Amino acid sequence: EVQLVESGGGLVQPGGSLRLSCAASALTFGTYAMSWVRQAPGKGLEWVSAISGSAGSTHFADSVKGRFTISRDNSKNTLYLQMNSLRADDSAVYYCAKARGPDSGAFDIWGQGTMVTVSS
Amino acid sequence: DIQMTQSPSTLSASVGDRVTITCRASQSISSWLAWYQQKPGKAPKLLIYRASSLESGVPSRFSGSGSGTEVTLTISGLQPDDFATYYCQQYNSYPNTFGQGTKLEIK
Lengths: 120, 107
Description:
Helix content of chain B: under 10%
Mean pLDDT of chain B: 97
Order of helices and strands of chain A: EEEEEEEEEEE
Mean pLDDT of chain A: 97
Shape of chain B: globular
Oligomer: heterodimer
Largest sheet of chain B: 7 strands, mixed
Distance between the termini of chain A: 40 Å
Low-confidence stretches of chain A: none
Number of helices of chain A: 0
Radius of gyration of chain A: 13 Å
Low-confidence stretches of chain B: none
Number of helices of chain B: 0
Strand content of chain A: over 45%
Strand content of chain B: over 45%
């Protein structure tokens, strides 16, 4: 069964950094684009960032551009999100999601989410 | 950036009803649109991709239609398990964007 498992969430102070990981199993990881999607408590879904299967292209929401970096290690079947200069409004559940294609696509597999809380 | 406007934000319906949710895009997204179902405390689940293609394992009472700037999700014959929040998402271009969500409640 294809599975995505996020880790790395937690409590961090404003201005701090955190790195999220998403481990994939039972799929040809490097074949698919991957994204991070977040959801603040009681709010809707917000797309955050995406990376192509080859890692040749990356994309970011304006709200995180310049502060977040997305990367992947296809040899380890793992996706990362490096989050710097964190703000209170970055507090959310962060989901990793697999796209149906190598560059983009609907998200057919989601992780269970990892909670990030930015607070002093 | 493409804005997705989803309506209604809340929908009250009964078991057995037929309901429709609409998403309007600020510019053409062709058919590059997905629909998701989310239940409290759970990750979203893909229902429809490419505007009208049913994801494997999703009941046939879910259907999608439309293209360009207006797409719809229809649920025919609501079941108790269908009461949840629904989101549309365009993946025509980056940044991908989601609609605000429609909470489907039991009347």
